Structures are given as C-alpha cells and as structure tokens.
Amino acid sequence: MTELETMLRASLEDFALTRAEKKELKPYFAKFSGDQVAQAKARQLAFRLANSAIEEYGQIAAMDWLQDVIKILFARENEINMSAYFSPGDDCLNRIRRLINEAQQTLDICVFTITDDRIVERLAEAHRRGIKIRVISDNDKSEDLGSDLDRLESIGITCCYDRTEAHMHHKFAIADGEKLLSGSYNWTRSAATQNNENIIVTNDPKLLRAFQETFDSLWKLLFRS
Questions:
Q1: What pLDDT is attached to residue 140?
Q2: Which one from 108, 169, 206, 220 is the annotated catalytic residue?
C-alpha cells in the first residue's frame, strides 16, 4: 500500500486523475480483482487521502477525485458515466478547470463567451504543455469589455467566430474526444457568483459523437471565414 499511497498522493496534486495516472492505476488495481481485503484497504486509503484533501481543494474536487479512484478500483469495461454540477458557487468552475487539467492531447471548446480569468489561466497552462486547443465563440461577445478571446489568441490558441446576425450560443467542451462537458453555464465570473446554471460531464459515446460532429461542422464553416 505504500507504493499505492505515493501514486494517489501524486494524483491529488492537481486534484484530478489524468489519463496517464489512470492508465498507471488500472493494472495496479487489476491485481486486487477478487481480493476483497486488498480492495477494502485500497478504498480506505483513498477515502483517507480525500478527507485530508478537502481543506486544500474543497469537498467537491476531493470527492470527484475519490469517485474516479473508486471507479478504477471497481472498474467495469464500457461503463457510461455522467455527473451534474450547479451554480451559484464554484462547482461548475472547478469542473471546467479540472476538464482542462485532464486533457492530454486536444480540447475543442464552443462557448458564447469567456471572461473568467481562472479558466483562461488553465487554458494557457494547457497550451504551454502542448494541448491542441480550438475555440469557437460569438463575434459580438468577443468584443465585450472583459472578453479574454484576444488574450487566448495572443498566446497562440486558435479561435474562430460566428459572424452571422444570430448568436453562437453553445456552451460545451470536448477533451481528447473522450469526455464531454455541456450545460447552461457561461464561462464567466457572474455564472459562478450570481446565476443559476448547470453543466453535465459524460463519456457517453453517442453524445460525444453528436457534439464532436457539431463542433467540426462549425469549425469548417467558420474558420478563416
């Protein structure tokens, strides 16, 4: 359990299990399959670490991390997962930031507006570590006071804009083609502090395919237009 504790503590540093960390844990936990005593000890360790992390990372982030660990410990192949988050409060914000942290290769983002620096900072970090990021947004909102689209473009993140009379009102993001985040939540501070908003996160392949096709169609239509 000492080795396992080291692995789990490392994954808690950014309060999210990355794809690489999950890949490392899966064969380790597979050794516990059918051994109820070993599984119980691993589960107790994860609960203890999550409990100790609540003060630093917050209850929602710590419990999300714990849920991911338990899912791997008792993994079932091809399981569809879905979770919901609500505002006011930081639950939606933290889940968006976590999705960005978890991305290993690509992030496709389609949002009405981005004005929350706490999200932009994570996008900048993801860009620096080599994540390919594409952003679609609304042209009118991109010119609002506080919009961070110019900042994203200035650091090399590719953005394109809907320039029709109607609004590009989507709010969704896809990480690595494997995880979808969508809901009413605008990527703004007021969405976290004032509005009643929601997001869901899922790995449902049918939903992923539908949203990815929508993103790709919009990108082809709007990019360089």
A1: 79
A2: 169
Please tell me which residue in 127, 141, 171, 179 is annotated as part of the active site: 171
127 is catalytic: no
Section 12-30 average pLDDT: 81
Q: Is 23 a catalytic residue?
A: no
Which residue, 53, 73, 93, sits at the end of a domain? 73
Span of 15-24, 70-79, 114-123, 186-195 with lowest mean pLDDT:
70-79
What distance lies between CA 69 and its chain's CA centroid? 16
Q: Dump pLDDT digits (tens) for 48-63.
A: 999 988 877 788 888 8
Give yes or no: 176 in active site: yes
**Number of domains observed in the structure of the chain:** 2
Residue 51 domain flag: yes
User: What integer is the mean pLDDT of 143-148?
Assistant: 69
Provide the residue range defining the domain that includes 22. 2-73
Same-domain pairing of 162 and 197: yes
> Of 176, 204, 206, 216, which is the active-site residue?
176
